[in-house]
Amino acid sequence: MNVPSAAVPLRFAVIGCGSVALAQHIPNIVKSPRMTLHTCVDLSDSVLAECRDVYGATHIRHDYEGAIADPEVDVICLCTTEKLRLPVIALAAKEGKPVYVEKPLATTLEEMREIQRVVHAANIPFCVGHNRRASPAMVDAQRIFRRHMIHPQPCPWRWQRESDLPRLADDGVPSVSVRINDDWHSWKGWVFDKTHAPYGPMLFEMTHFTDVCNWFLDDEPVEVTAVETGMLNVAVIVRYQSGALATIVLANNGTFGYCKELYEFMGNGSYVAVDHMLEVRTAGIEDAPPRKTYPMVQDRHPQLGTEGGVSGWLEKKRAACAEAAAYHDPRLQFTAEPDKGHAHALERFVDQILGKGPEVCGVDASVLATRVSFAAIRSAHEKRPVPLSEI
After folding, report:
1. pTM score > 0.70 for this model?
2. Count of domains forming the chain
């Protein structure tokens, strides 16, 4: 493909303008001086009218083929459900156009492999929406953790009870704990439609978290063991080539009144936590800050919780929940959301397209995360550990 000029904003066509596109990608494209909302594609006339009248889309249409073929379109942002991925990606690849696609990459292993083949053959810039990789808190935490795993600095106060402790093969090998607190009452109806989402949150949510574990550990997953009690309570253990373990607990009977995501990384006598992408805490790493907080987005209560971080967010959240109860409008509970990296991922993808930055989350990384999720699905169904070589 021809590399566009950095002096001219890249013209995006957003294909599939549902909730994710309208909540994140379309507003983020409009706000960026390096992107232009050229075309919006959807089946709904009312949605397309909103894209034109509220967000200023230059063109609206029902067919994705015409949008991809349009010589004025530089980049495709694919936000359809995962039922429509391969035909759009294949057509964009044929036109040599970069693609940003939401996750999961596909609902079958066969389609996922074909997408991987198509992208490699066309050699187009390609990014999958594992947006946690672009969250400022996650970026800092991953950098701190990887640096310590590669170049560990002995902690001067680490207590070694006896001087002649035995050497252990797994000394320093990391472990990861991921806890997800979600509330299934907030889910849309398509989640329960097996023809649309045959694997439920074990695929459409789990790939976020398997990707984070792969990214932080920088290791090859080799075996997955999973237990589920239906759609709502899931536990997954991923074993890696080095012996590292990642444990993911997905609890969907929780509450939006508390932080959704907690990531804990341990290795080489250290600890790094990312709490809801609001703060990063460390211990046992002498040159890392013990605590750092991160800005929130769409804060309706800037006068509350001014200390930031988890405690500041909880104060804002309690006020928002009280408003939601008082006005009988559950939507009012949302305020001061953590920065999960959506806008940053698009900006970094622009850098990648322009040849000014590295790959953000390419097809191979997404395929690996998706394979781990499919291994977890098979493990839970067959009640046995599943080697990744089977997937």
Report:
1. yes
2. 2
